[in-house]
Design goal:
By secondary structure, the chain is of the alpha/beta class. It has 21 helices and 24 strands. It is globular. 56% of the residues are buried. Bound molecules: fructose -6-phosphate.
């Protein structure tokens, strides 16, 4: 949560910072701010409640000159979203400006200590404590800024990615990281700083990912220096990032979410590239082969994730247990990390995360690692914290996901989990050759079938208009479709603010059925698979209580159409691959309902894409 950007070089910093903030707005959009040092060594700070566009409007008549600056887009943790709580925060003397992503857990103690020394605070944030503390330590001991930052951070408990400007030193930027991501971009005579590489790739593909406990000393026309809190030099590797700028734009779509829904056929092809052979008769995930012994000898798999990634994990459990006959447990990372779980060196822990930065998932990985488990990451953001903390893993390769509601990452995660289950099952010989070949060949056909589903977009847009009245929705599915029901409900609630519940269809009788009346839309995944007859009975139960059924059915189904109010016909595919098909219309339904209701689809209220706080 919160996005931070910095620049030092020879160009005007302001346009680079603002453009960078727009790329990071997915991380939070409660308030935004910028600090610049101009040629006369004035430190100009502008901040405002609202989005980056509000900041732009606010700064229109202001002096935004300067070739060094830092900027921030906020997702509120401590202190309501308002101008006073927006970053950058500045020190008492007005000499230092600081931006922060993370949480300072012991801020109350530090604040009290500073208050007894006569410091006053302008905001109710945890961040302001940090900038005041740095200045206090600097002034008390007459230290240079780097040393003061090192000492201050030794007193801090919590997570941070910070960047600091000092009016007295307009040729230097200091940045530090612990548990929140930070990337330094190295250009020709200029440096960039950001929470991820997206604000940087336009200018340079050379980046350094800071590690926990590292501080970057970024000086004009001097080489990058990275040290730790004890001033020991940290060797750093410059990496080349490959990111196509087109991936960061809407490409003619009204929203990133719709663009990302439509990208899914290409994404799944990218995800399978080099892993499923061209004849479609073999799947190899290199990480599985490289760590075959460890994976095959695992007594148990535990999958940790949050939100949409947790829904993908539920599908992964079903796939791995069915094909590999290995017991799998799925855990919310936030629960797992705080309940002293039984984890042994015999376990393999799979961490699933689009951003690779989710604080709870990262903490779950560290905990499992400390208990000797082997950790496998399934992530999207290349070079992010989780892939760097795991022993091995597979990227989903679906490209940057910018819409806050996750779409293509979910289908990418399910695709990787399918490939993982198939690769392991083949190695373990728990799958017959015919079944294996059949599934692999059908997997290869998924992108083409997804394209067919995307043709339903206009029809689903029409259908969505009918349901804008609803205050509640129920989503039902069984087997592989139960996590899809959960995911469909999550998509609807997060972008349309309609309350929605996903349930295993048969569980409905144990409570939720009481909610059903003529007003209640019930989305049922009723494709023709082993559980079809059972789901059919569940639909009858809903209709008997006058619920309005929207059914996802297999093309050519003539039975459900007699009972349901609306049927969405989908191409036939094997049961284990159905989530890759059935999720897509549910994404479109949520999207169009939210658009009809006039919601901010890409930036729904209270949410942020990357949840880097617990
Ligand atoms: C929902 C959504 C969230 C994320 C969750 C985990 O659309 O995007 O529920 O899935 O915050 O994020 P990652 O996958 O980045 O760990």
């Amino acid at each position: 949560m919160c996005g931070i950007v910095g620049y030092i070089g020879h160009r005007p910093a302001y346009p680079i910072l603002v453009k960078g903030l727009k790329r990071l707005e997915y991380r939070g959009y409660d308030s935004a701010g910028v600090a610049l040092i101009d040629d006369a060594q004035h430190l100009n700070i502008y901040k405002t409640k609202g989005k980056v566009s509000d900041l732009e409007a606010f700064t229109q008549q202001k002096d935004t000159s300067g070739t060094i600056g830092i900027a921030h887009t906020r997702w509120a943790t401590h202190g309501e979203p308002c101008t006073a709580n927006a970053h950058p925060h500045y020190s008492s003397s007005g000499r230092l400006a600081l931006i922060h992503n993370g949480i300072i857990e012991n801020y109350a103690v530090l604040r009290e200590k500073l208050q007894t020394k006569g410091y006053t605070f302008r905001s109710s944030t945890d961040t302001e404590v940090l900038v005041q503390l740095i200045e206090y330590i600097q002034d008390l001991n007459q230290l240079d800024l780097l040393t003061a930052v090192q000492l201050a951070l030794q007193e801090v408990i919590g997570a941070y990615a910070i960047a600091i400007l000092d009016r007295e030193h307009p040729d230097q930027l200091i940045a530090a990281r612990k548990s929140s991501p930070l990337v330094v971009g190295i250009g020709q005579g200029e440096f960039f700083l950001a929470s991820d590489a997206t604000p940087i790739v336009e200018y340079t593909d050379q980046v350094v990912y800071l590690d926990d406990g590292e501080i970057a000393l970024i000086r004009r026309d001097q080489p990058l220096r990275i040290v730790d809190l004890n001033n020991v030099e940290c060797p750093h590797e410059v990496k080349t990032v490959a990111m196509n700028l087109g991936q960061l734009e809407k490409g003619g779509f009204p929203h990133f979410m719709l663009k990302e829904i439509f990208e899914q056929p290409d994404c799944i092809n990218d995800c399978m590239r080099g892993r499923v052979n061209v004849d479609g008769d073999n799947v190899v995930l290199s990480a599985v082969i490289d760590h075959k012994e460890r994976l095959l000898n695992a007594k148990r798999f535990v999958i940790v994730a949050c939100g949409t990634s947790w829904h993908a994990a539920l599908i992964g459990k079903h796939l791995i247990e069915s094909f590999c006959r290995i017991p799998v447990e799925v855990e919310y990372a936030s629960e797992f990390r705080y309940r002293d779980p039984v984890i042994t060196p015999d376990d393999v822990v799979i961490a699933i995360s689009q951003s690779g930065e989710t604080a709870d998932t990262l903490a779950a990985v560290e905990l499992a690692k400390s208990r000797g488990a082997f950790i496998y990451g399934i992530c999207n953001a290349i070079g992010s914290s989780i892939p760097r903390a795991t022993h091995t893993g597979s990227y989903i390769h679906v490209g940057p996901e910018i819409g806050v509601a996750s779409t293509k990452a979910f289908t990418g995660q399910v695709t990787v989990l399918t490939m993982l289950a198939l690769t392991l099952a083949r190695e373990k010989q728990t799958i017959g050759q015919d079944e294996y070949l059949y599934i692999v060949r059908q997997l290869v056909r998924i992108p083409e079938k997804m394209k067919e589903v995307l043709l339903l977009n206009d029809r689903i847009a029409q259908l969505a208009k009918i349901f804008t009245y609803a205050h509640n929705f129920i989503y039902l599915g069984r087997g592989y479709s139960y996590p899809v029901a959960l995911e469909g409900a999550l998509k609807l609630k997060e972008i349309s603010y309609i309350h929605a519940e996903g349930y295993p269809a048969a569980e409905m009788k144990h409570g939720p059925i009481a909610l059903i009346d003529a007003e209640m839309p019930v989305v049922v995944i009723a494709t023709q698979n082993g559980l079809y007859e059972k789901v059919l009975s569940n639909i009858q139960e809903i209709k008997a209580r006058k619920g309005r059924v929207i059914a996802l059915v297999t093309k050519g189904d003539t039975v459900v159409s007699q009972i349901a109010d609306t049927c969405i016909e989908l191409p036939e595919t094997p049961e284990c691959l159905e989530p890759l098909i059935t999720t897509v219309p549910l994404q479109m339904l949520a999207y169009h309902i939210a658009v009809c209701k006039g919601m901010d689809v890409d930036q729904p209220r209270n949410l942020a894409k990357s949840v880097t706080v617990e």
